[in-house]
Protein 1
Amino acid sequence: MSRSIPFFNYPALFMQDEAALSGIVLDVLRRGAYIMQRDLEEFEAKLAAYLGVKHAMGVADGTMAIHFSLIAAGIGAGDEVIVPSHTFVATASAVAHTGAKPVLADCGPDHMIDPASVRAAISSRTKAILPVQLNGRTADMDAIGEIAAKHNLKIVEDSCQALGSKFKGQFAGTFGVAGSFSFYPSKTLGCFGDGGAIVTNDDRALEIMREMRDHGRGTDGLVHRFGFNARLDNVQAAVLGHRMDQYDGMVARRRAIASLYDKRLKGLNTLQLPPAPDSDPDHYDIFQNYELEADNRDGLREHLKNAGVGTLVQWGGHCIHQFPDLGLWRDLPYTEQMTKRYMMLPLNLSVSDDDVNYVCDRVIEFYGK
């Protein structure tokens, strides 16, 4: 029997916790606490404590978080920053808006930035590496760290999809000058609009980024630089603070869904699955997405669509080097082939075990034909 399993159930984000969330929002509105109030400070403190960092700062969205992190790291005109092509264009645009040039790197079979490709992309102008901790997985930060140390490069992380992910016990977002997070509704920790945060252990970096998010104003009330209006609004901060209290359970559920997908589908040689939870002791993945590679990807997606199952190809099936108007083309063989095969199955807190089994039945059915 056909059913409907959307790729992401946006109404459920609110309806699954409607009473508590309604009370939180009404409380903020009744207090008139709209911008830079205690709810933001409380959320920032919770986020910093969770990640074990000195500072967390809410901002308007993940793109601004990356952009401000780069500025705080001293990146500017004439510099080059190495970025994986397999990421949302915002990662590269954050580099470009500093005046620097994004230089694209290939990915490996786990879809994370390939350290060998990073090494090959280094030039005399390279000033930083910007690894993207994608799909809830953290890259090989030992290799990235060794490259950065050898060539005196800064590390700035796009960890927008990886809140809670770890490499060798260390959280994504805590390996470099600063790490960025996105709270877009479909993220593992999502709000009801755009939202983001930056974390850092560097006091000077925090000072620069605080000025950047609030029109260049410092704690003394004076304007010290041209900045932006990029504050995380207080309603969203209150919602995020509430959801942060439930976050460990949310991650555990996502990992359980990923385990079920892996159990049901790992026998299909037509699929290349992401690494299973606990398959590698160095990695603790939170499964922001369940991104796999599939033979006859488009045929599989059509079959699932006809069975009521929503799927997604990230970024419309284009990685950054594949946008000719950006002028960033490089020969990236793995990424090039991957974009013909990659897709994502539904994985979020509205998906039941029964839903996962239904999806897997339909996938197995497709390849059985």
Protein 2
Amino acid sequence: MENEVKSRKNRILEIDLLRGGAIFLMVLHHLIFDLRYIVGLDVFAFQETEWFQIYLRSAVLAVFILVSGISSSFSRNNLRRGIRLLIAALILTGGSLLVNHFSQVQLGVIVFNVFHVLALSIISYALLEKILWSKEDKEEKRFQFFLILLVLGSLLIFVPELLRQQFGLNSPLLNIIFFADYPQGMALLDNMPLFPWLGFFLIGSAMGLLLYRERRSLFSEPGPRAEKLFRPICFLGRNALWVYLFHQPIILAVLWLLGQIGILPRI
């Protein structure tokens, strides 16, 4: 219990709140997606509008990826974390292939989603840190490393798409991974490209170096009422990857159960 309390005190409130809020909105998005496209209810048509797909969804993803980058800037063993997450992401891809192969309902496969993006982003940051920011001169090169991450992140947001438009990319798999551009008729589930999100992650890492040098919150500690109000969102923020991994099977199981008892159409 004492270790748990100490661990919570070491958390940065605004990071947990932002990540938790983004995760909550992602879970809500997947719920309304499932109700419309899997259950077949004629509801939530706004998901197909431009403002939702391009602006609202992208804004939520940007917050989540930026915050993940900030967190990595003061995390230890980023390379190990990234490799573990990549292994989990590959298992997720393999699992989706098996389920899609043996299931009567073809939901699609997960080729490259947020887990893959975060894994490769964390690994990229860890390698850049090892190459450009040695332990011996950490403080002297902090600002230089910040600038490199900021410039590189900004380039990765805009340049890859411009290069693709200019020169093209013939590999269907690389188009899926880098740009979420997949062949017509191919059913993908929860796809997310590496670009521009790797760029957002590196910019988040740069922000973490600048804003969280002391690894503590930028704001004063909240009062008891605010802490109680923030607790559910902070819980989601502290356990973001676990929530993201398991929320969809739980949602589908609940929707299936509601279909069996006649409240919703069967799936």
